[in-house]
C-alpha cells in the first residue's frame, strides 16, 4: 500500500488539502552576521505578521530558515498555535559565509550533515546551533540549500549532496536559494541530473531576481517548481518583472509549477506575507484569472510540500 502524502508542519503532519493559501517561501526568524541589517528576531512582530496574513485569508507559510540561522523552532510552534497559520519548518544549510568554520568542520566528518538533515526531518530540530545538542519536538518539513552567484562552489556541492541523501531517505522536498536568481540550471543538473532527486521535489527560489524567460521555461520543462518570492528592498530592480514572468510561464502551460512567497529576510526588507494577498493576488487575478491564482497560492504548494514520508 502506498503511504498517504502529508505536509509536515511544526504542529504535526496534515492532509495537503488542509494547507490552504500558502506563502511558499518566507521567514519569521532569521539571523546571520553575513546578512545586512538587524536580524528577524521579534516574536511579537512574527505574531503580528501571521495575524495580518491570516486575516487576509492566509492559511500556511513555508519558513525557509535552515539550521544554524536562528529559526527558533519553538517560537514557530507558539506563533502557529496563536494564529492558526500552518508553518512548515526547514532543515538544511545555507552558504558557507553564514557559519562558523569549526561548526562546518564538525559537520564534514563522515555523513554527519546528511544525518543531521534526516534527524531534523524525522525526530526533531536542534534547539540551537549545536547539531549534537538538545532537540525540540518540532520536525522540519523541507530541506533548504543555496547556490552561489552563477555557479556552485565546493561547499554548495557538499551541502546539496547531503540534501539529496536526506531526500532519498525521507522524500522531503528541497528548496533552493539561488543567489540573485542565478545558477538554477547548474543546481538542477546537480540535484536532479547527478544526484537523482526528482525534479518535482525541487523548489527553485528567487527566480524573479533573474527574469530570463527562456531559462524559466527550461526549468519548468524539467518538472521543477519555480518560486517567485519578493518584492524586497534589496532586489527591487527586478520586482517589476515578476508578474510578467508568471504570465509568460502560465501562457506556456506551466501554471501548475509556480509558487509565490514574500521572502522577508530582515525587518522592513519588504512588505511581507500580507502583500501576497492584499496586492499580488488581486493583480494576478486580473492577469491570469481566479483559477490560476488559486493554483499558485493553494494547489501548487499543497503538491510541492506533500510527501509520502519514508521515516
Automatic annotation (TrEMBL):
Pfam families to which the protein is assigned, alphabetical: PTE
Spans traversing the lipid bilayer: none
InterPro entries per record: Metal_Hydrolase, Phosphotriesterase
Keyword Thylakoid (UniProt): no
N6-carboxylysine sites (modified residues): 144
PROSITE patterns for the chain: PHOSPHOTRIESTERASE_2
Keyword terms of this UniProt record: Hydrolase, Metal-binding
Entry's family note: Belongs to the metallo-dependent hydrolases superfamily. Phosphotriesterase family.
Name of the protein this chain belongs to: Phosphotriesterase
Amino acid at each position: 500500500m502506498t503511504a498517504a502524502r502529508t505536509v509536515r508542519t511544526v504542529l504535526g503532519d496534515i492532509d495537503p488539502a488542509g494547507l490552504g493559501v500558502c506563502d511558499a517561501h518566507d521567514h519569521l526568524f532569521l539571523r546571520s552576521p553575513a546578512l545586512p541589517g538587524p536580524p528577524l528576531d521579534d516574536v511579537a512582530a512574527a505574531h503580528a505578521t501571521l495575524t495580518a496574513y491570516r486575516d487576509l485569508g492566509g492559511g500556511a507559510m513555508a519558513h525557509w530558515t535552515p539550521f544554524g540561522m536562528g529559526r527558533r523552532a519553538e517560537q514557530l510552534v507558539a506563533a502557529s498555535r496563536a494564529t492558526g497559520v500552518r508553518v512548515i519548518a526547514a532543515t538544511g544549510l545555507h552558504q558557507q559565509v553564514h557559519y562558523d568554520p569549526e561548526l562546518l568542520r564538525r559537520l564534514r566528518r563522515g555523513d554527519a550533515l546528511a544525518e543531521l538533515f534526516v534527524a531534523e526531518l524525522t525526530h526533531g530540530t536542534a534547539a540551537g546551533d549545536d547539531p549534537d545538542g538538545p532537540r525540540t519536538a518540532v520536525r522540519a518539513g523541507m530541506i533548504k540549500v543555496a547556490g552561489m552567484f552563477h555557479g556552485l562552489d565546493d561547499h554548495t556541492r557538499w551541502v546539496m549532496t547531503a540534501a539529496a541523501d536526506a531526500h532519498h531517505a525521507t522524500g522531503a522536498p528541497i528548496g533552493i536559494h539561488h543567489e540573485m536568481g542565478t545558477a538554477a540550471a547548474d543546481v538542477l543538473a546537480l540535484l536532479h541530473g547527478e544526484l537523482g532527486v526528482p525534479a518535482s521535489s525541487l523548489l527553485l527560489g528567487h527566480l524573479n531576481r533573474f527574469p530570463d524567460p527562456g531559462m524559466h521555461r527550461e526549468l519548468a520543462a524539467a518538472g521543477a517548481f519555480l518560486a517567485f518570492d519578493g518584492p524586497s528592498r534589496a532586489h527591487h530592480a527586478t520586482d517589476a518583472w515578476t508578474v510578467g514572468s508568471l504570465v509568460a510561464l502560465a501562457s506556456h502551460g506551466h501554471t501548475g509549477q509556480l509558487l509565490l512567497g514574500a521572502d522577508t529576510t530582515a525587518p522592513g526588507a519588504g512588505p511581507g506575507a500580507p502583500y501576497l494577498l492584499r496586492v499580488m493576488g488581486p493583480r494576478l487575478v486580473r492577469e491570469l484569472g481566479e483559477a490560476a491564482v488559486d493554483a499558485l497560492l493553494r494547489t501548487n504548494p499543497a503538491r510541492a510540500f506533500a510527501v509520502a514520508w519514508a521515516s
